[in-house]
Predict the 3D structure of the following.
Amino acid sequence: MDDRTAPAGRYPRDIGLGAVRHDWTREEVRALFDLPFPELIFRAQTIHRRHFDPNEVQISTLLSIKTGGCPEDCAYCPQSVHYDTGVKAEKLMAVDAVLAEARAAKSAGASRFCMGAAWREPKDRDLDKVCEMVAGVKAAGLETCATLGMLTGEQAQRLKAAGLDYYNHNLDTSPEYYGEIITTRTYQDRLDTLEHVRDAGIHVCCGGIVGMGEGPEDRIGMIATLAGLPVHPESVPINMLVQVEGTPLAGTKALDPLEFVRTIAVARICMPESVVRLSAGREDMTEETQALCFLAGANSIFYGPKLLTTPNPGRDRDMALLDKLGMRPMD
Ligand code: SF4
């Protein structure tokens, strides 16, 4: 930022100026959250423009290839066997059916196809099928992404060899709040899988969820942890909790949408080269909140009427919103 665009001296000038850094302190991240809203959005938008076309949005489609029956106890998740949410456990989809969905997503404008399975970790025989799916989706001309739970180094290598471009594995929240949300695995388990994925040469998609009853310090801790990874995730999904009846988080006090926008802006500033994805929770967001998120540096969305098991705006509504904002899908 040069002198003409540097903000007036009332706010710390040496934070959030756009350099790619991995040594963000919590104090610095907190100072960003504490900026006046216009100042924060200005910084986020300035940085966004240095690295991306501000009028473009990357569009991904997410398909649940294996729904429900998950042994993990993530307190937000309707697919956990621990909660009675009405989601039925299904088997892994057939490869042909997944490939048909991928072709349909491509015709609808998606550039990346994500496959999600409700597993703690994949069994090797299931991974054979997933590798076939990955190879088929890639051959159909889409970027490939999967989220299958924890991976060993060897499993990550197999997925890479099959053509996997991205692996999604979220840190969900701060290390301190993690135990309130999940007890069946540790934060370190998550970090270990992220390392296996990175070592295999697969791009990392990793973010979190806000509105889970966490405090401001947890949102700060989550962003500081993500921005402190040895390499920033190429893709950073920021989700607003979708409350599902039957999960422990149903009835949690809703987060102020402006706090959500702030989280997006701070993520954009701390990880300037990452694609920040406005993920779950858009169904309940106004167009104005979504527009503010784009202004704050979000540049990716999930397309399609369902995100795994929860509702998402339909394609027509999204297209109408992008049209209204004069934005367009990224190639
Ligand atoms: S979020 Fe994933 S790991 Fe956690 S319960 Fe749901 S499907 Fe299982």
The pocket of iron/sulfur cluster is lined by residues 70, 72, 74, 77, 79-80, 118, 149 (CB under 6 Å). The longest helix spans residues 124-139.
